[in-house]
């Protein structure tokens, strides 16, 4: 037996057996306390700096989204769902209309200091 084999056996003997997972959602339970940034994008527009500098109170900026289109819901900058704006008391809320299935699989982790 060489040193590498001996080390591998010692490590595997010292490691506890993995816990049995009874339900699939339990597998991700450790993620539940991680904070992420959820943001909603109503629309966007590209403008020249000079156009932005000309904006005044009451100016209207036309966005690239139609009134009847769903808005984008992002988690850490990655699209995960689409929805519609709804009033919630004196604030805005978002009703989820569809989940983007591959959005969470490609979500980026953003570290904030």
UniProtKB/TrEMBL annotation:
<feature type="compositionally biased region" description="Low complexity">
    <location>
        <begin position="10"/>
        <end position="19"/>
    </location>
</feature>
<dbReference type="InterPro" id="IPR001543">
    <property type="entry name" value="FliN-like_C"/>
</dbReference>
<comment type="similarity">
    <text>Belongs to the FliN/MopA/SpaO family.</text>
</comment>
<feature type="region of interest" description="Disordered">
    <location>
        <begin position="1"/>
        <end position="22"/>
    </location>
</feature>
<keyword id="KW-0975">Bacterial flagellum</keyword>
<keyword id="KW-1003">Cell membrane</keyword>
<comment type="function">
    <text>FliN is one of three proteins (FliG, FliN, FliM) that form the rotor-mounted switch complex (C ring), located at the base of the basal body. This complex interacts with the CheY and CheZ chemotaxis proteins, in addition to contacting components of the motor that determine the direction of flagellar rotation.</text>
</comment>
<keyword id="KW-0145">Chemotaxis</keyword>
<dbReference type="InterPro" id="IPR051469">
    <property type="entry name" value="FliN/MopA/SpaO"/>
</dbReference>
<keyword id="KW-0472">Membrane</keyword>
<protein>
    <recommendedName>
        <fullName>Flagellar motor switch protein FliN</fullName>
    </recommendedName>
</protein>
<dbReference type="InterPro" id="IPR036429">
    <property type="entry name" value="SpoA-like_sf"/>
</dbReference>
<feature type="domain" description="Flagellar motor switch protein FliN-like C-terminal">
    <location>
        <begin position="31"/>
        <end position="100"/>
    </location>
</feature>
<keyword id="KW-0283">Flagellar rotation</keyword>
<dbReference type="Pfam" id="PF01052">
    <property type="entry name" value="FliMN_C"/>
</dbReference>
<dbReference type="InterPro" id="IPR012826">
    <property type="entry name" value="FliN"/>
</dbReference>
<dbReference type="InterPro" id="IPR001172">
    <property type="entry name" value="FliN_T3SS_HrcQb"/>
</dbReference>
């Amino acid at each position: 037996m060489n040193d590498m084999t001996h080390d591998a056996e010692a490590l595997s003997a010292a490691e506890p057996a993995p816990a049995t997972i009874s339900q699939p959602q339990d597998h991700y339970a450790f993620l539940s306390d991680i904070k992420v940034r959820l943001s909603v994008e109503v629309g966007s527009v590209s403008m020249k700096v000079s156009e932005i500098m000309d904006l005044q109170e009451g100016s209207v900026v036309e966005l690239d989204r139609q009134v009847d289109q769903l808005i984008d819901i992002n988690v850490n900058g990655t699209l995960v769902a689409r929805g519609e704006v709804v009033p919630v008391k004196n604030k805005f809320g978002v009703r989820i209309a569809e989940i983007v299935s591959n959005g969470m699989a490609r979500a980026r982790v953003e570290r904030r200091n």
